[in-house]
Specification:
Elements: H1 2-29, E1 48-51, E2 59-62, H2 67-81, H3 83-104, E3 109-123, E4 126-145, H4 149-216, H5 221-256, H6 276-284, H7 287-308, E5 313-325, E6 328-340, H8 348-416, H9 421-455, H10 459-463
Antiparallel strand pairs: 1-2, 3-4, 4-5, 5-6
Length: 468
């Protein structure tokens, strides 16, 4: 009789545990989020998720601008708000005025000067003139020959003005790349927070199920403690991701302002990686390389102007001086050629020419070295992008297997009792870690492609944003 009673109690306990476990499976199975379908890594939807709950990272989905339009908005706002771009524009304007200054030196020069004041002259003890004296002088001169110095100097100024314009565009490009990379980084951590939030929800579901089980079987209290610990860890990882995303959001607002409607669906155009030939072609046309090329050519023109400055300088001059002192008027007119040539200056002219020539050669070699370095770096970034997207593809396949493993493990634990809770949590932890790795691989690829576009023809040109 006693053994029968014990047997019946055991059956009742098993029945209660089975009902609780079955309830846990039915409640928690639906909490498993669907995984990215094959190929979804390269076709993100043109929607953006605006976070509405800072505690969970969840937000309401709203239609926003297309990914291309959002990237264009980021580029325009970042370039418009940047003080560095403003400073570079002022330098470009100053360089254009330098051209006018040098070009004006080749035109005839006209100058006027005059004096007004008391005058007194005395000769052999006798006062000749005394009173107020007024004099005026008109000077006119023009260049005839300078060995090509002014032409070379004007060309040098033109090259520097062109380099300044490319420098302005390069500065814009740096600012735009920073803004786009910051937006991508913000989206990385927002997406991570969502994954960790789903992980925390799954652990919360397990905790609720285990609370029902522990009410019946106190011997499984350690499993409840373990599940609560894992839930707390998932929530901590979620909160860390949210904190980092808010910090990145602050940097993004500094770059593009508070009014820009930037969602999370901005990465679509950045899934395509450039081919090697296109990289080389666009790299030579990049703003930075064009700036360095013009600087090297300008250095050569400056060296020519220094050398030409050591040749004879010939100008025509004419001047007229007139004055009034008392009742006496005077007028003198003079004209002719002015020739100047330095016969000896201690060798400083040769040293100046040699120094300018060396600087020109150094600028040329710096251009070549920078081009080689950037070409090598571009191939590295291309490899980073290709490798990142390849990892993303492979993670999609691994996640499918992981999904099957976690479902099977959870079902075996909750319905069949063939697995321990530690097996369940290990499968869940591996699965969500893979999802975070998938998110990181995608965003690594997006950022590498953004950098690659910037190194080539430029993000602004690629996006079709007008450079003002």
């Amino acid at each position: 009789m006693r053994s029968t009673t014990l047997f019946m109690r055991t059956l009742m306990l098993a029945g209660v545990l089975s009902v609780a476990a079955t309830s846990a499976y039915s409640a928690c199975a639906d909490d498993i989020a669907p995984q990215p379908e094959k190929g979804s890594w390269k076709s993100p939807k043109a929607r953006a998720v605006a976070p509405a709950d800072s505690a969970t990272g969840e937000g309401a989905t709203a239609e926003v601008l297309t990914p291309q339009a959002q990237l264009q908005l980021i580029a325009r706002e970042a370039a418009k708000r940047s003080a560095l771009v403003g400073a570079a524009k002022l330098l470009a304007d100053a360089a254009s005025y330098d051209i006018e200054e040098t070009r004006g030196a080749a035109l005839p020069q006209i100058g006027v000067n005059g004096t007004l004041g008391p005058a007194y002259s005395r000769y052999a003890g006798e006062t000749l003139k005394k009173g107020t004296q007024i004099t005026g002088t008109l000077n006119v001169s023009g260049l005839i020959y300078d060995g090509g110095r002014l032409n070379a100097l004007t060309q040098y100024r033109r090259e520097m003005a062109g380099a300044a314009q490319y420098g302005l565009q390069a500065t814009r490009e740096q600012v735009v790349l920073e803004a786009v990379s910051t937006a991508l980084e913000r989206n990385r951590y927002r997406t991570q927070a969502k994954v960790y939030q789903q992980y925390a929800r799954k652990m919360s579901c397990l905790v609720e199920a285990l609370e029902q089980i522990v009410d019946v079987d106190r011997g499984r209290a350690s499993e409840l403690v373990q599940a609560r610990k894992t839930q707390a860890q998932a929530e901590l990882a979620r909160d860390n991701a949210l904190t980092t995303s808010r910090q990145v959001e602050i940097r993004l607002r500094k770059l593009v302002g508070d009014q820009a409607n930037i969602g999370e669906g901005i990465a679509g155009p950045l899934t395509q990686t450039m081919e090697a030939g296109e990289i080389i072609r666009l790299l030579e046309q990049s703003n930075e390389m064009q700036q360095m090329r013009l600087q090297a050519e300008g250095a050569m023109r400056y060296a020519e102007s220094v050398e030409a400055g050591q040749k004879p300088q010939v100008s025509w001059v004419a001047n007229s001086t007139g004055g009034v002192q008392g009742d006496t008027k005077s007028l003198a007119v003079q004209g002719g050629l002015s020739v100047s040539y330095n016969l000896f200056n201690g060798g400083s002219d040769k040293a100046a020419s040699a120094a300018a020539a060396r600087r020109a050669e150094a600028a040329r070699r710096q251009y070549e070295e920078t081009l080689n370095t950037k070409t090598s770096r571009a191939f590295e970034v291309q490899e980073l992008a290709s490798g990142a997207f390849d990892r993303a593809r492979r993670y999609v396949e691994v996640l499918k297997d992981s999904e099957r493993v976690r479902n099977s493990t959870f079902q075996q634990w909750s319905q069949l009792g063939k697995r321990s809770l530690f097996d369940v949590m290990s499968a869940e932890g591996d699965h969500f870690n893979l999802r975070v790795a998938y998110v990181n691989a995608l965003h690594d690829g997006y950022q590498a492609n953004a950098q690659l576009r910037s190194m080539g023809g430029g993000l602004m040109r690629w996006l079709g944003v007008e450079e003002r």
